[in-house]
């Protein structure tokens, strides 16, 4: 019980430390295990995914940096792109549909989608598809 309570106290102090780190030191360190969120496939893609919205609470951050795991059968639905967006495949295999054309993507593949293009990505095979996603946030008017 003592170890459990110590762990809770450490977690509370660590969370407060990370929350204030940006103000005090000019940086933030996050661990994916602390921010994991179970979500359906974005853009009506279906299936189960795990999203990791790194630095979502950072003030004045101009980029979105996410890790997403598409579990077997999951997808990012086909949709039109409105700003530059980069996908980078860490592991697994996916089927990318870009402007109606299909291609297989795997580890080490970087994909740049530009405004006006349309794309979707679905996990294929038995292994999770793990990707990083980077794009610019909408600017406040």
Automatic annotation (TrEMBL):
Keyword rRNA-binding: no
Residues annotated as domain Cupin type-2: 70-135
TM region(s), chain numbering: none
Keywords from the named record: Metal-binding, Signal
Keyword Magnesium: no
A Pfam entry, by short name: Cupin_2
UniProt cross-references to InterPro entries, sorted A to Z: Cupin_2, GPI/OXD, RmlC-like_jellyroll, RmlC_Cupin_sf
Name the UniProt record assigns to this protein: Cupin domain-containing protein
Signal peptide: 1-21
Organism: Microbulbifer bruguierae
């Amino acid at each position: 019980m003592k170890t459990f309570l110590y762990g809770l106290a450490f977690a509370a102090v660590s969370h407060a430390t990370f929350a204030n780190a940006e103000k005090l030191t000019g940086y933030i360190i996050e661990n994916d295990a602390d921010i994991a969120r179970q979500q359906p496939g974005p853009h009506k893609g279906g299936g189960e995914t795990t999203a990791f919205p790194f630095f979502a609470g950072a003030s004045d951050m101009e980029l979105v940096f996410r890790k997403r795991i598409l579990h077997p059968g999951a997808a990012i639905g086909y949709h039109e792109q409105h700003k530059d967006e980069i996908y980078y495949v860490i592991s697994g295999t996916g089927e990318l549909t870009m402007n109606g054309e299909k291609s297989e993507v795997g580890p080490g593949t970087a994909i740049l989608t530009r405004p006006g293009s349309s794309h979707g990505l679905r996990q294929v095979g038995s292994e999770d598809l793990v990707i990083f996603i980077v794009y610019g946030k909408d600017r406040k008017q």
